[in-house]
Write a sequence for this structure.
């Protein structure tokens, strides 16, 4: 017989294998338990660090300078842990190539260190990264750290990447470094044709230590 | 594919000479298949390569004929050697095997939980350092197959590592761009700073008193081994450096630079640590698959053509 959580707690209490603190009724406890579980999130898959990370990138959210070639891109999301808690103040390091597929090794173009705001949100503007010969797909690198959590090193990919031929479900394994379909994100194109922008939402979930 | 070092490569040419350096071809080795990466062992008397078929190929010079070691458990991804004729080989699925280089007999099996992308053998054959996934360096007892210690990083794993010639110290170049030194027990001795970008290559002087580090910065830094003090840094070449070798004869440092877009070998640099500039010869390094050394020279290993691997000494 399947019991719902409230019935299960009631049975456990009746059998003496569960006790509830004074002031917390069984119904409230069952509801809180369920709500807590609903919040739980799966950790964002880790992915290869890549060779061109650079520490001490500046705290700037505008990675795209006026006149930069390439499709303007806005990436935003929030930082959670696997319990579903928001992580304001989490440190988010991002780096990517320019439109032409080049990493800036001499300076900090298309590199930033961001801090999640009080709502644990982050956002930055950039351009759609280019392709380069040693790598199959366009990608943005992320490294997120927060006290009490395992650092998250991952990459985000674009469902519109020509490599996926419009079907990332089927083709995401064309890049052997893509560890999960989850990292291939939908792209929303908006704005006037002369000022179009690609927007991507990328929520990041850290494992609690 | 990766050997001891991250080394995205391909094949060199006979001999070139400039005022700065001379490259002399010492050997032409027959390759049954193309070699993706190669190292030198036993003071340059042995060359070990990983073929495109995932098998190991071992040449004992001056013989030009390779001994093939095919591993039943899968293709080799990385290899290193000790000074006693043993090979440490990283396979897929977190497997590492210690082999006798002469007959391919497996002497030890090590299983890790993460992908192994670099194996680093201590010259005495006792210790093995592994670069695994995005975790810090792992130190293993190569004889017992037991893990001794796990290093530390602030972020990410290990890019490359090297043991000192006396096997008493491990230098780990980590992806958080820090250089860390460990003793034989895996105790962290110090953390050093080679720059803001990741290092891809570490090489010791023959006496072990100094080591050089280079990578995405495009410069070479020389450190004092005992203290971790940075002694000197060259000017940047403008290209990421993927392999280093110390020239035993004069203490100069050879470096293979790569194109930062294609990651293909681009130039062979030579740094006299007394100066700042890394000098370049006219060498076409396209096809370089490794950089090693013998008792007196740095050795460049290059897939000359699909059937020939050349060994050339930098004079």
């Amino acid at each position: 017989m399947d019991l719902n959580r409230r019935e299960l707690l009631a049975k456990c209490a009746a059998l003496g294998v569960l006790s509830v603190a004074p002031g917390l009724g069984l119904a409230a406890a069952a509801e809180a338990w369920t709500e807590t579980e609903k919040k739980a999130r799966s950790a964002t898959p880790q992915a290869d660090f890549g060779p061109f990370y650079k520490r001490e990138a500046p705290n700037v959210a505008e990675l795209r300078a006026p006149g930069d070639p390439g499709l303007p891109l806005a990436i935003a999301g929030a930082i959670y842990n696997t319990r579903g808690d928001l992580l304001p103040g989490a440190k988010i390091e991002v780096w990517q190539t320019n439109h032409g597929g080049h990493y800036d090794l001499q300076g900090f173009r298309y590199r930033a260190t961001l801090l999640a705001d009080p709502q644990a949100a982050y956002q930055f503007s950039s351009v759609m990264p280019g392709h380069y010969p040693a790598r199959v797909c366009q990608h943005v690198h992320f490294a997120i750290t927060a006290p009490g959590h395992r650092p998250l090193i991952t990459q985000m990919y674009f469902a519109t990447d020509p490599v996926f031929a419009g079907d990332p479900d089927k083709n995401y394994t064309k890049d052997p470094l893509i560890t999960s379909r989850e990292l291939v994100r939908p792209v929303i194109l908006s704005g006037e044709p002369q000022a179009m922008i690609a927007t991507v939402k990328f929520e990041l979930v850290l494992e609690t230590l | 594919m990766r050997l001891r070092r991250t080394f995205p490569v391909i094949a060199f040419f006979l001999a070139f000479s400039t005022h700065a350096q001379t490259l002399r071809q010492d050997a032409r080795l027959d390759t049954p298949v193309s070699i993706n990466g190669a190292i030198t062992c036993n003071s340059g008397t042995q060359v070990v390569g990983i073929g495109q078929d995932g098998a190991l190929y071992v040449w004992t010079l001056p013989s030009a004929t390779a001994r093939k070691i095919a591993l039943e458990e899968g293709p080799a991804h990385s290899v290193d050697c000790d000074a006693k004729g043993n090979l440490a080989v990283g396979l897929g699925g977190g497997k590492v095997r210690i082999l006798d280089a002469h007959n391919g007999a497996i002497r030890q099996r090590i299983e890790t939980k993460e992908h192994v992308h670099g194996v680093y053998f201590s010259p005495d054959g006792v210790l093995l350092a592994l670069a695994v996934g995005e975790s810090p360096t792992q130190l293993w007892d190569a004889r017992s197959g037991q893990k001794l210690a796990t290093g530390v990083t602030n972020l990410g794993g290990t890019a490359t590592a090297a043991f000192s010639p006396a096997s008493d110290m491990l230098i780990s170049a980590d992806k958080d761009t820090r250089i860390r030194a460990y003793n034989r027990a895996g105790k962290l001795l110090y953390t050093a700073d080679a720059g803001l970008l990741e290092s891809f290559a570490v090489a010791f002087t023959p006496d072990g008193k100094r080591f050089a580090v280079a990578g995405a910065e495009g410069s070479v830094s020389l450190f004092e081994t005992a203290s971790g003090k940075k002694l000197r840094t060259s000017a940047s070449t403008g290209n990421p450096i993927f392999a280093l070798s110390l020239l035993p004869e004069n203490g100069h440092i050879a470096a293979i630079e790569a194109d930062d877009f294609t990651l293909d070998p681009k130039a062979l640099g030579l740094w006299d640590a007394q100066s700042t500039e890394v000098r370049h010869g006219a060498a076409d390094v396209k096809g370089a698959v490794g950089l090693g050394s013998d008792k007196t020279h740095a050795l460049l290993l290059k897939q000359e053509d699909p059937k020939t691997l050349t060994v050339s000494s930098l004079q």
User: Anything to note?
Assistant: DSSP finds three helices and ten strands in chain A. The interface with chain B takes residues 46, 48-49, 51-56, 101-103, 105-106, 132-134, 143, 145, 151, 153 of chain A (CB under 8 Å).
